[in-house]
Amino acid sequence: MNEAAPSPFAEQALPPWRRAVLKIGSSLLAADGGGLSPRFALGLAQFVSANLLAGREVVIVSSGAVAAGRAILPRAAEAGAAIAARQALAALGQAQLIALWQRFFERPVAQVLLTHDDLRNRRRYLNARATLNELLALGALPVVNENDTVSVDELKLGDNDNLAAIVAALVDADALFIATDIDGLYTADPRRDPQARPINEVTELTAEVLAMAGGSGSAAGTGGMHTKLQAAAKAGAAGIDTCLFNGRSGEVVRALAQGRLRGTRLHAGRSRIAARKYWLRHAPLEPGAIVVDGGAARALREKGASLLPGGIAAVQGEFRRGDMIEVRDGGGCIAHGISQYSAVDVRRIAGSHSRTIEATLGYNYGENVIHRDDLVLLS
């Protein structure tokens, strides 16, 4: 990795974290002349490995499929319209991208392809979250990329920065690390303004801070500093700090593995738990509701329990899996939560034991109708 020009950013301690998302852009993976290079990927993989050995969990969001595909068929882009050609290149390069990451790790690497539509649709969102959490529980390393072979608007945006922020919220990460090809956020573009000064910390993403961001810094990448600040805003709304750093600097990446950041830390506005509970409390509700018995109501209030089918007394209205609904007892609404099952399904399993769900429905989304992480109590 590059050892020239030490970082102008002051060293600071990383925020404590148990689970993080690491976003790596094309500019760190693209080889000169096309294809993928392990030059900078190796150091980032060592950072991931060090944290996995320490008992932490990491999800990688990696660009680079289009660059890899271009090396396989360099003339493919001339064959058709720009979007279709790039989609074809992404399809060709995706296997190469996963192979690059697998070579660095003894544990299995899992490919997860998402579009923004997958994450806007609540049912698909829940399915994606369940898959990623299961992969982490199994000890696999998820490598997420946008599904460029089918996306259109998202591909034109090259928006893996924002995708990484959404994935960070999806898996309840504590931190979002964005590896870029410059040292961090400056007061202006340092490649054009010699007076640009490094910004070590941002406590609030104001319009003034956003105005400091420039465009894309390389031919391989399509996301500039502005999309990184947008991603930090999304992550911050979920209570997740974002750290920007130079993924080309071996010194910076080695320090990161030791818990020290030489880059820009963008602070979340509130804690992760507080942000999620705020969202659960204020998100729009569907008209349906689940009515629970006294025992279930006490378990929710006093023990912070999940809602199991055995404590359900009735179902009101209609709702779908993934909808935000009310939870009621005899006195009225006591909580808001995201239902793992539709109203039709909840009616069929109400009052029964969790172990009978699959026998009753023919499928199983888990033993909880509403998981405690998807539920907020109302005082």
From TrEMBL:
One of its GO terms (biological process) is L-proline biosynthetic process. It is found in: Cytoplasm. Keywords: Amino-acid biosynthesis, ATP-binding, Cytoplasm, Kinase, Nucleotide-binding, Proline biosynthesis, Transferase. One of its GO terms (molecular function) is glutamate 5-kinase activity. Substrate binds at residues 63, 148, 160. ATP binds at residues 23, 180-181, 222-228. Pathway: Amino-acid biosynthesis; L-proline biosynthesis; L-glutamate 5-semialdehyde from L-glutamate: step 1/2. GO terms for cellular component: cytosol. It is an enzyme of class 2 (transferase). It catalyses: L-glutamate + ATP = L-glutamyl 5-phosphate + ADP. Its main location: cytoplasm. Transmembrane segments: none annotated. InterPro entries: AceGlu_kinase-like_sf (IPR036393), Asp/Glu/Uridylate_kinase (IPR001048), G5K_ProB (IPR041739), Glu/AcGlu_kinase (IPR001057), Glu_5kinase (IPR011529), Glu_5kinase/COase_Synthase (IPR005715), Glutamate_5-kinase_CS (IPR019797), PUA (IPR002478). It comes from the Bacteria. Its EC number is 2.7.2.11. Residues 288-370 form the PUA domain. PANTHER family: GLUTAMATE 5-KINASE, ISOPENTENYL PHOSPHATE KINASE. Belongs to the glutamate 5-kinase family. NCBIfam families: proB. Catalyzes the transfer of a phosphate group to glutamate to form L-glutamate 5-phosphate. This is Glutamate 5-kinase. It comes from Stenotrophomonas daejeonensis.
